[in-house]
Amino acid sequence: MSSEQSLKAFRRDGRIVIVGASLAGLRAAEALRDEGFTGALTLIGDEACEPYDRPPLSKQVLTGWVPADGTALPRRREIGAEWLLGVAASGLDLAGKRVRLADGREIPYDRLLITTGVRARSWPDEAEAALDGVFVVRTRDDSGRLRERLDAGPGRVLVIGAGFAGSEIASVCRERGIPVTVAEVAEAPLVGALGSMIGSIAADLQRAHGVDLRCGVRVTRLEGDGRVRRAHFSDGDAIDAEVVVVALGGVRNTEWLRDSGLAADRWGVACDSGCRAFDINGLVTDDVFVAGDVARCPHPVYEYRFLSLEHWANAVEQAQVAAHNMVSPPTDRWPHLSMPTFWSMQFGVNIKSVGVPVMADEIAVTQGSVEERRFVAAYGYRGRVIAAVSFDNAKWLDHYRQLIETAAPFPPSCPTPDRPADMKPVPADFPDPVVITHGATVLVTGHEPSERRVAFVRPGPLKPQEKRS
Amino acid sequence: MSSEQSLKAFRRDGRIVIVGASLAGLRAAEALRDEGFTGALTLIGDEACEPYDRPPLSKQVLTGWVPADGTALPRRREIGAEWLLGVAASGLDLAGKRVRLADGREIPYDRLLITTGVRARSWPDEAEAALDGVFVVRTRDDSGRLRERLDAGPGRVLVIGAGFAGSEIASVCRERGIPVTVAEVAEAPLVGALGSMIGSIAADLQRAHGVDLRCGVRVTRLEGDGRVRRAHFSDGDAIDAEVVVVALGGVRNTEWLRDSGLAADRWGVACDSGCRAFDINGLVTDDVFVAGDVARCPHPVYEYRFLSLEHWANAVEQAQVAAHNMVSPPTDRWPHLSMPTFWSMQFGVNIKSVGVPVMADEIAVTQGSVEERRFVAAYGYRGRVIAAVSFDNAKWLDHYRQLIETAAPFPPSCPTPDRPADMKPVPADFPDPVVITHGATVLVTGHEPSERRVAFVRPGPLKPQEKRS
Amino acid sequence: MRVVVDLARCQGYAQCAFLAPDAFRMQGEEALAFHSSPDDAQRDQVLRAAAACPVQAILVETAEPS
Amino acid sequence: MRVVVDLARCQGYAQCAFLAPDAFRMQGEEALAFHSSPDDAQRDQVLRAAAACPVQAILVETAEPS
Q1: Residue A228 in 3-state DSSP?
Q2: What is the mean pLDDT of residues A32-45?
Q3: Distance of alpha carbon A121 from alpha carbon A138, whole angstroms
Q4: Residue B312 contacts D where some CB pair is shorter than 8 Å
Q5: What CA–CA distance (Å, rounded) separates B405 from B402?
Q6: Could you tell me which chain D residue has the CA closest to the CA of B71?
Q7: Distance between CA atoms of C20 and C12, rounded to whole angstroms?
Q8: CB–CB of D37 and B343 under 8 A?
Q9: CA distance linking residue C63 with residue A388, whole number of Å
């Protein structure tokens, strides 16, 4: 059989398995059928329910507007798939082309798509994490339970971590009139994602809305008697809290791939821009693809660095590219080149970003007014625009996306008459990314080129709050 | 034909073209025959002579021991190749699978290997560069002509740039009793490759051997009347010099690939660890391979960063891996994982390094004595050993290679009784890599995933001495 | 019925909030909040809102999937 | 004849410099310098030196290639 004929046969009768039945997995399945794939399609998901939308879980669900079980994703089309839900994948046999499930079953595939995403990082002290009233927010069950507690009108909520999720949850609490304390180990909210300048604006915003914001402190202990009652801080202070929300970011679901031979670690599964996974040695594989939050993909605009993005739009678009490439000949592969875009609603402000702010060395407000909390700031990296963030000024982001994609000089000129008084660039000032490069990762074995291979070093556990907010 | 049969036919009757007929190209050709490839093999090289060894050009050839035309590389075996020498490749048609030559010929291939390496960066002022007595040292002709001038006993030689090549040439001058001035824009010799601490040791070494070393200065002008006579410095000083050697590092030979659609830029051609080239969109190609100085390859030990290495041993080993993968099935691909190793002989000292020093944040002397110029220093990156350098203590480097490959904690303990008095780590302190991230590189076009593609931005010319020494 | 909005694409034109105010709400100056499972009684309003979105950021599914 | 030494592999054992001093020289404490094209009269010495290298870092070609 020629490769053309074998692709044709695969498109007709092949077996595609998708591990991870959330946004990226569902959209990839739909795209595979759009592309004309008529073979067997299996979706594996560790949650028992069908794919649902996560962004409302820290917003509309907690305010009480949308029920927790009411965020199932609309379908773009029939996909005629076999659904294996409520069972996690536990291993991958690359040579034998089989996915192992936690219940012992083995699912064979011809081509595999990995979309296992991230889960919430849990509170590191297990006993404290088990106290009634301590939450994370990642699944719809998490969100539903937290919402019930907020409905009951707690005396105070403590949110640990002032990244986007933590800030949004604090915002909902204030919207509902619930007293809330936010504890953040960094100097300000959002600082890990957007840098010091935006962080200090976000801090003002929180305080203006009545948040008891405490930065530069760690939560050292959660105290309780079955139910959580009190939290202690590294500065010696303590507060009473009936509800504690742990918002310490995400952990990529790659443990099941640990011994598979793929380049899968705590930063995700590395792939080329065509979504083909790298094996642990850095070789691109032919039949294993990755998409969504769990993928690390090189971006030409960012010096071919491997980017891990936990963005809704990235998941959708990467799923589409992966699906296309899974059923197309090598001469018709698409690259995943979408410009990262992120949004967050908090304290009545629409925060939106485009590009990769964390790579920046400088930032400058380029439009609007920081005091009015309606502005755009551009991020520069060695003299070029590489990202932008807007506060209630999102309609200009497409302009900045074009500046990024055309490598425009930084600082850019203001495209409107509302030029800010001071456009001078200042250092971007991102905190040291402790977790991102934490600990050993791989070791090399063998001497001759024919035998030299890489193995993973199993890293130690993370220390409490040793993370980017 | 099945893919197995088509590989078999390719191995028997296929056409492999290698562009670049130096160390990597020759060794790859030999390895292809070792692997059993019996098809047509073509080597294309812009120099008229057969492959020769370059390291002696800045050492044994300049001392007068080895003639410039006496460094042809020994052959490991017959390769039965067609040699197209003295003609440069000028373009690549990826879709049509043809290499275009400067003389208008087109050479078809089934699989292509790119080993075009680097050339010397020339003096930016063309009129000054054309003065008689101004040299670069990259080819055997360069070296032969410079050696003749040194034989004539010039009153003074000026070496511009105190990287490894410049330092070695200065060393030869002193060995031959010729007065020599070295001008370096950075604070010390070798600082771009080995950091501040080693740089200051190298500076002492040069001065102890009578070099007139001037750091932190640029050469602003070369003055002459057909022959070079005088050089002016940015600090206002000037010297008489009959010979000027421009040692400003290498430029990767990728211009011929500019419009080819490969990810080829001034930093080289990006590839996966199996030496398969990336296209400009970040997709790994199937029939184009890269090896040697021109390749940028992700290394698992260094967070899968793309490394460009101008190392003799890297070229040899990468050529072997590329050759194997060119004629092997996808299930038998080798990853290129060799640990970078570099050596330099200068001022009677054997300097050798393993790993990637430039990634380090700290350095500590771990063995021996800096004063006696016989020591080993280890480089750390976020608490792990990632590189080491030895001065006259090379036998220990294999020990450090193992520390790197097993991600050992930094600073490592001293393996011998000659423990230095002070092992305290200090900042590694590399200068800002100006050139490495200079200017715009790519821009993105198209909107839908199916049409989005990357194009190169043509960067402006480099300013004088805007480079790493 | 099921609704999702691509908020990366949404530009805050607020057409949907005028046409189907029970399913789409503006929060603050320009942020959109949407109901993921509006009541079937709002079907026509929601479909009209989706059709009117200038950047086609609203995806609606009216029938339950099989 | 043609010679090349893999100096990344060379450990400075100096066996070659004892056995074929016209083709291999130590420079300073441990650095090796080699002649890339020693005279054919040294053929036996050079081959002996290559064979004696403890890390097999020396590659010799005695015949001109076709």
Answers
A1: strand
A2: 98
A3: 9
A4: yes
A5: 5
A6: D36
A7: 14
A8: no
A9: 39
Interface test with B, best of D27, D34, D58, D62 (most B CBs within 10 A): D27
> Which residue of chain A is at minimal alpha-carbon distance from C55?
A395
Identify whether the C-beta of residue B242 lies closer than 8 Å to the C-beta of residue B133: yes
Question: What single-letter amino acid sits at D18?
Answer: F
Give φ, ψ of B150 to 5 degrees.
Answer: -70, -35
Q: Say whether pTM exceeds 0.90.
A: no
Which residues of C fall within a CB distance of 8 Å from A349?
A: 28-29, 31
Q: What phi and psi, each to the nearest 5 degrees, are found at residue B345?
A: -110, 125
B56 and B126 in contact (C-beta within 8 Å)? no
Instruction: Give the span between the Cα atoms of A461 and A463, in whole angstroms.
Output: 7
Query: Looking at this predicted complex, what is its ipTM?
Result: 0.75
Asked whether A132 and A222 are in contact (CB, 8 A), the reply is no
Contact (Cβ atoms closer than 8 angstroms) between residue A25 and residue A48: no
From first to last of the 469 residues of chain B, give the pLDDT tens digit.
Answer: 577 889 999 999 999 999 999 999 999 999 999 999 999 999 999 999 999 999 999 999 999 999 999 999 999 999 999 999 999 999 999 999 999 999 999 999 999 999 999 999 999 999 999 999 999 999 999 999 999 999 999 999 999 999 999 999 999 999 999 999 999 999 999 998 999 999 999 999 999 999 999 999 999 999 999 999 999 999 999 999 999 999 999 999 999 998 898 988 888 999 999 999 999 888 999 999 999 999 998 887 777 778 888 899 999 999 999 999 999 998 889 989 888 899 999 999 999 999 989 888 899 999 999 999 999 999 998 888 999 999 999 989 999 998 988 888 999 987 777 777 677 888 877 765 433 333 344 566 666 666 666 665 544 433 333 333 3
Q: At what angle do helices A312-326 and A23-34 cross, to 10 degrees?
A: 40
Closest residue on chain A to B263 (Cα) = A300
Total beta-carbon pairs less than 8 A apart between chain A and chain B: 163
Among candidates B272, B382, B438 on the partner chain, residue whose Cβ is nearest the Cβ of A283: B272
| CB pairs < 8 Å spanning A and C | 84
Residue of D nearest to B67 (CA): D37
Which residue type occupies A120?
Answer: A
Rounded Cα distance, B137 and B247, in Å? 7
| Ramachandran category for residue B309: left, alpha or beta (phi over 0 → left; psi -120 to 50 → alpha) | beta
Q: What is the pLDDT of residues B239-265, one digit of tens each?
A: 999 999 999 999 999 999 988 989 888
**Residue A9 CB coordination number (10 Å):** 13
Cross-chain residue pair A304–B317, CB shorter than 8 Å: no
Q: Which two tokens stand for residue A140?
A: 């719809």
Closest among B153, B155, B166, B88 to B123, alpha carbons compared = B166
Q: What is the DSSP letter of C65?
A: P
B159/B217 Cα distance (integer angstroms): 13
Q: What is the DSSP string of A402-428?
A: HHHHTT-BSSPPPSSS---S----EE-
Question: With DSSP H G I counted as helix, E B as strand and the rest as coil, what are the percentages for chain D, rounded to 5?
Answer: 25, 25, 50
